[in-house]
Amino acid sequence: ARPRVGYFYTGQTPFTLLSEQIQKMEVRNYQSLPVVAKESSSAYEAVCTMFLEDVGSLFVVNDQGLLSGVLSRKDLLRTAIGSQDMNHVPISVIMSRMPNITFCRSDDAVIDVAELLISREIDALPVVRTKGDGLEVIGRMTKTNITKAFVELARGAAE
Amino acid sequence: ARPRVGYFYTGQTPFTLLSEQIQKMEVRNYQSLPVVAKESSSAYEAVCTMFLEDVGSLFVVNDQGLLSGVLSRKDLLRTAIGSQDMNHVPISVIMSRMPNITFCRSDDAVIDVAELLISREIDALPVVRTKGDGLEVIGRMTKTNITKAFVELARGAAE
């Protein structure tokens, strides 16, 4: 397309354009696939899943497949240097548990998720949708996804 | 300041402005303080340092205080579920080692660091400066710093 160069009427400052551009970036276009584990899984199994799937957080689901917790590499490392046997600790006792879980939805703005990741000092948010009286996990948003969004914004702008 | 609204001549498209704005963001304004460990530290000590300092990566320095490696939570978790005693494994045997370390300098562009973090699939880059025939660690850039930069860019734009 022909670049719009020179005099043009926008009614906006350049920064308003940037702000609108960023606000239009929705979670659905940047989320990754979630990696889930059952509450009854052992800490050892969880570490293996993390390495196999190459993720830093697992989303934990109950028997109905609904979100019940989030398990981080940090939770597992804390358990690993403790005195308990990783094979006999169920992840349900070391995970962060609902309702103390921060989550987002696929039509949320990426920038709002970025602010949550920073303000709550967390690594990953489950992307959820309502199912019955609980939440079904449909995606994953991490600082990696935010970093990719930032790179894409810069590249798109540079084209 | 009065907003520039309406007809204005820029000689640039809005996206060029955004691109320039992003390119001007330098590492020095977004880096965190580095957390370093000695090569002779044990894996157990390294885990404790990570928890105390609340970081996901340690930069390892040699006797001259120069960068010799990077140690991640993932390296420690792998060791923790192995058969070795965390108290008797020096971090020098489990860390990523120079010259296989990706680093950056304080006058690099944040966007270039973001691209490195994504393309090399790493969590943290040491910010370094040349010292003698080695590199001194003066900072830390992670996906958290990139996420903060993204939020700041959006907020600045929204003002």
From TrEMBL, chains A, B:
The keyword DNA damage does not apply. Keywords: CBS domain, Repeat. It comes from the Bacteria. Residues 30-86, 95-159 form the CBS domain. This is Transcriptional repressor CcpN. The chain holds residues 51 to 209 of 209 of the full protein.
